[in-house]
């Protein structure tokens, strides 16, 4: 099945905006500024999704030139945004089960693999820098009380 790529962009962006709204709503209940990082990330997702919708609407106004193919096939590759949506939802749920830092580590590895990163050294280095930096920022600097878990 083929659909025009602008409609594909609009549909996936609307789903991301809905996810961002859900994440902001859920993270608002986290104690002591614990929802700041998820809310900030969700706000960024919503902002970039809104920009993507505006660009897609501009593209719909342009007439198709002869021989131009602005259609996408609905295939596993085109459903990647939905896979990231599912991973993000799992991440939010996992925060309350395993704790913020454990869930963040699992999400980092899962999202990297899902997006095609196969360099384990790069993933490990990213995690070795990102997790302690998040700890320093949220725990030491902001004194936030994040959901406790397996590691911290």
Fold and architecture overview:
With 152 residues, this protein is mainly α. It has one domain. The protein is built from five helices and two strands; from the N terminus they run βααβααα. It has helices at 5-27, 36-61, 80-98, 100-114, 120-141, and strands at residues 2-4, 71-73. The protein has a two-stranded antiparallel sheet with strand order 1-2. The model has no long low-confidence stretch (mean pLDDT 88).
Q: The biggest beta sheet, please?
A: 2 strands, antiparallel
Could you tell me the mean pLDDT? 88
Counting H and I runs of at least 4 residues, what is the number of helices?
A: 5
What is the string of SSEs from the N terminus onward? EHHEHHH
- For the record, give the distance between the C-alpha atoms at the N and C termini, rounded to a whole number: 47 Å
Secondary structure class reads mainly alpha
Can you give keywords for this protein?
two-stranded antiparallel sheet; 2 strands; 152 residues; single chain; 5 helices; 4% strand; mainly alpha
Structure described in brief:
By secondary structure, the chain is mainly alpha-helical. It is built from five helices and two strands; from the N terminus they run βααβααα.
Question: Can you lay out the helices and strands and say which pair or pack?
Answer:
Blueprint (H helix, E strand, L loop, with lengths): L1 E3 H23 L8 H26 L9 E3 L6 H19 L1 H15 L5 H22 L11
Antiparallel strand pairs: 1-2
């Amino acid at each position: 099945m083929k659909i025009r790529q602008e409609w594909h962009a609009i549909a996936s962006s609307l789903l991301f905006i809905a996810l961002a709204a859900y994440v902001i709503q859920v993270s608002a209940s986290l104690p002591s500024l614990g929802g700041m990082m998820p809310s900030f990330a969700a706000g960024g997702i919503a902002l970039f999704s809104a920009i993507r919708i505006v660009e897609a609407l501009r593209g719909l106004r342009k007439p198709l030139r002869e021989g131009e193919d602005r259609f996408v096939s609905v295939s596993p590759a085109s459903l990647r945004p939905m896979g990231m949506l599912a991973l993000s939802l799992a991440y939010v749920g996992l925060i309350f089960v395993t704790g913020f830092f454990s869930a963040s580590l699992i999400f980092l590895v899962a999202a990297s693999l899902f997006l095609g990163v196969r360099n384990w050294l790069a993933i490990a280095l990213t995690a070795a820098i990102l997790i302690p930096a998040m700890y320093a920022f949220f725990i030491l600097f902001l004194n936030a009380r994040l959901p406790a878990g397996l590691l911290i």
